[in-house]
Amino acid sequence: MLDHGAPPRTLPTETPAPGLGARLMRRKPVEHLVAEGGHGEGGTLRRSLGMWQLTMISIGATLGTGIFVVLGDAVPKAGPAVTIAFVIAGLTALFSALSYAELAGTIPVAGSSYSYAYATMGELVAWVCGWCLVLEYGVSVAAVAVGWGEYLNELLDGTIGVTLPDVISSAPGEGGVINLPGLVVVLLAMVFLLGGARESAVVNTIMVAVKIVALALFCAIGFMGFKSGNYRDFMPLGTAGVSAAGASLFFSYIGFDAASTAGEEAKNPKRDLPRAIMLSLLIVTVLYVLVAAVAVGAWNWKKFAGSEATLAAIMNDVTGQTFWGTMLAAGAVISIASVVLTVLYGQTRILFAMSRDGLVPKVFGKVSGKTGTPRVNTVIVSLFCGVLASLIPLGKLVDATSIGTLFAFGLVNIAVIVLRYTRPDMPRTFKVALGPVFPVLGFVFCAYNMFSLDAVTWVVFGCWMAAGLVFYFLYGARRSRLATAPAEQFAGAPAEEK
């Protein structure tokens, strides 16, 4: 019987065959993944998060990104049919969320889909998935931080009548030298995360409440300016426009899986993680569709092109006053900061899991005995994301994040099917209905949205994956704990795992 109170001394897995293929397909048994949960270099993560806090982490990581930042880019692609684009993106997220919920309840660890792939499809696939998650979480932090600066300017303009000059508020290529606000919000999130997971969760819950109130306020005021004529030409750019917008808007749903990265800090992960994932996605989808419908009803879709801080501009236009737009901008500044906080949290926990497996340097797995957090990991990731936010334009970041996320989500859907086949009797606190049907649909939706992205995004993704494979074969494959553990330790895996 595995001792859950101390890190396991051995790494039970199937005996590796001598060939290269067998080494790349070596898997980490579910039981061992769960048993080593929380243990890092020099300390352990603290289990302090309940179901409500986990739900707030997922909502905090998701709600706000698409509405406050990306809506202005998506409406010109789809017109009023942007509401359908949100539904398409939401369906893609839903099927993948079902798969996440099953695996999070079965394998409640910090690595999220990286760990699920390790247990089902082998080390190489797990590495590819983890590398995609680095792209998903790390780059999305930077992208959201860029959008935060736009609303900060809107707030400053409405309160004191000044805005930050482009030279310090825009990235190179957009008229500036550095996006200082983007860097600042990432560093603020870093400070909160260094204080501890529970303390960060409290701050996040407050910020989530603020963002929900802000969006409710927008709906109430925006509805007063609703014009049915704005929906007359519902799909001006055809289904191709809706598909393109849906692929970009999938960025808006990035984060619903953030609760799964907290598997080693949840009090009752097997029960609470599936509930938190599904509840957060439901709340976010309803709010997204409602706000998008009101926004397009209040503003002709052609006015969205090139508009920054879109929701605040709509409120100013509807009321003829700047006060309400300023209030919304204040809410956006707070709520977008919560996205940065929670997504940054997820990134550090994924790298923590990868470090524990030996696939990335040990420094990412060191845990502070004082705060129970991977402090050095948090500082390194925050500085990296802060530099991206300060130097890279928003549009380039969004699509790159979406393709990495879609790829990782596709692998999660496959992992559910594989684990159902290899470990059918394993206890599951949540099961996706209709056997493999929903996971297959989730995979198909992910693939459809991936191929809706432009060629440049695919080139960037290909370069990113090539770099990841080079790093894996030069570093991770040699230093993996499964590769370096003595052969006599490779024993004790369940029969299905051999």
Automatic annotation (TrEMBL):
This is Amino acid permease. It comes from the Bacteria. The keyword Membrane applies. Residues 1-21 are annotated as: Disordered. One of its GO terms (cellular component) is membrane. It is a multi-pass membrane protein. GO terms for molecular function: amino acid transmembrane transporter activity. Keywords: Membrane, Transmembrane, Transmembrane helix.
